[in-house]
Specification:
Largest sheet: 8 strands, mixed
Number of helices: 11
Strand order of the largest sheet: 1-2-6-3-7-18-8-17
Number of strands: 18
Order of helices and strands: HHEEEEEHEHHEEEEEHEEEHEEHEHEHH
Bound molecules: zinc ion
CATH class of the largest domain: Alpha Beta
CATH topology of the largest domain: Aminopeptidase
Number of domains: 2
Protein name: Amidohydrolase
Pfam family, one: Peptidase_M20
Radius of gyration: 23 Å
Shape: elongated
CATH superfamily of the largest domain: Zn peptidases
Distance between the termini: 26 Å
Keywords: Hydrolase, Manganese, Metal-binding
Binding site for Mn(2+): 106, 108, 142, 169
Helix content: 25-40%
GO molecular function, one term: metal ion binding
Length: 418
């Protein structure tokens, strides 16, 4: 085995390469080829092309539990503004064929690199554990579709069913800190499209038209009342309208207008009530305007909540504490971010343990002496999906490799147990 395989500098080079060469959801072909080559060199049995670009390596190493470690590979249509020397200036084509900038704005390049590091570490140290290790790289987390695509491509008929699915997400917490929340950990997310159908015409003669822009504008404001007037103070919901598109020119009233909503919820009843309210408001607005056709409301993507099975989370937390120390392993509380890793765990009938990995420069927190001050500084950092978001490479990378390896060892057998 080459000594460069365990060289941390090489991992940093892989990270920079991935960061400079991001690929959109379901287009992760080069990333998949890179991880495939790496897993083959390490001696894994490798399956490729699962659910389009998914890759899984299986390493059978004696008796013991089967443990699956997962990373997501996709990037986002964001123009990078970090100013880093390894910033992306890649362009890609989105699902509609539009040319868009592409950036690893969610840090999935860090997830891939950390998982390569953990695969190297565990495969090169296979005398210290016993069991079956599965290393999985999934496409299209950002669409909430990649985990499902792999599961529906007979994933768990082709590899042994794991006892646990382990994974992590880099976050603006300080590098050196990891956060795991037992129970409900990440919100459910829904992508909802509202299309208003009006009747277009000349901007100078609005009386001959039904203006979908006015319907859309009224709906944007009215939707603010879903959270404030229809959801109890003791319940939670986030409803963000992230996209509003209509028209091409100032003097043309268009035929249609489209709103895209991101909704986050922790409870199916709250979710269902909110979707009913969105439908009622959009349809009501189109009727009030005398639209020739009712507004269409379409839930086009859905992520279920991530639930860290409590006993599994406790076991993973103990492994993380053993490596990082008790002060570095915190409880995050449930967060409004969403993830599709739970789909893999559900499909396998496995427990799920998913944690947040700190990625902000620890020097930024030097002045913080209390948890409140640390949180205040975390909240000042760019969040994932921002054009200025990027974790510091170190110590984030070393910590991410160590966290995955430690968590896996907490589930795998020791050779003497086997
Ligand atoms: Zn993301
Ligand atoms: Zn992400």
């Amino acid at each position: 085995m080459s000594s460069s395989g365990s060289n941390p500098t090489a991992l940093e080079d892989i990270y920079r390469f991935l960061h400079m060469n991001p690929e959109l959801s379901f287009q992760e072909h080069n990333t998949a080829a890179l991880v495939e080559a790496e897993l083959r060199e390490l001696g894994f049995d490798v399956l490729t092309g699962i659910g389009t670009t998914g890759v899984v390596g299986v390493l059978r190493n004696g008796d013991g539990p089967t443990v699956l470690l997962r990373a997501d590979m996709d990037a986002l249509p964001v123009a990078e503004q970090t100013g880093l020397e390894y910033a992306s200036n890649t362009l890609g084509n989105d699902q509609d064929g539009n040319e868009v900038p592409v950036m690893h704005a969610c840090g999935h390049d860090m997830h891939v690199t950390c998982l390569i590091g953990a695969a190297r570490h565990l495969s090169q140290d296979r005398g210290s554990w016993s069991g079956t290790l599965e290393i999985l790289f999934q496409p299209a987390e950002e669409l909430g579709a990649g985990a499902r695509a792999m599961a529906e491509d007979s994933l768990f008929k082709r590899i042994p069913r794991p006892a646990v699915v382990l994974g992590q997400h880099v976050s603006p917490l300080p590098a050196g800190v990891v956060a795991i929340q037992p129970g409900l950990a990440f919100a459910a997310a829904d992508g909802i499209r509202i299309t208003f159908h009006g009747r277009g015409g000349h901007g100078s003669r609005p009386e001959t038209t039904v203006d979908p822009i006015v319907m859309a504008a009224a709906t944007v404001l009215r939707l603010q009342t879903v959270v404030s007037r229809e959801i109890a103070a003791t319940e939670s919901l986030v409803l963000t309208i992230g996209s509003l598109h209509a028209g091409t020119k100032n003097n043309i009233i268009p035929d249609t207008a489209e709103l895209l909503i991101s909704m986050r919820s922790f409870d199916t009843d709250v979710r269902d009530r909110a979707i009913t309210a969105i439908r009622r408001i959009a349809v009501g607005e189109s009727r009030a305007a005398g639209a020739p056709q009712e507004a269409a409301v379409d839930v086009y993507e859905s992520f279920p909540c991530v639930v860290n099975e409590p006993a599994a989370a406790e076991r993973t937390r103990a492994s993380l504490i053993e490596h990082f120390g008790p002060g570095a392993v915190i409880t995050s509380g449930a967060v409004t971010g969403s993830e599709d890793i739970g789909v893999l765990a559900d499909a396998a009938g496995a427990a799920c343990s998913f944690w947040l990995l700190g990625g902000s420069d620890p020097a930024l927190f030097a002045s913080a002496t209390t948890v409140e001050e640390t949180i205040r500084i975390v909240n000042q950092q760019p969040s994932n999906h921002s054009p200025t978001y990027a974790p510091v490479i170190q110590p984030t990378l070393d910590n991410g490799v160590a966290a995955l390896a430690a968590a896996a060892r907490g589930w795998l057998a020791r050779p003497t147990d086997a």
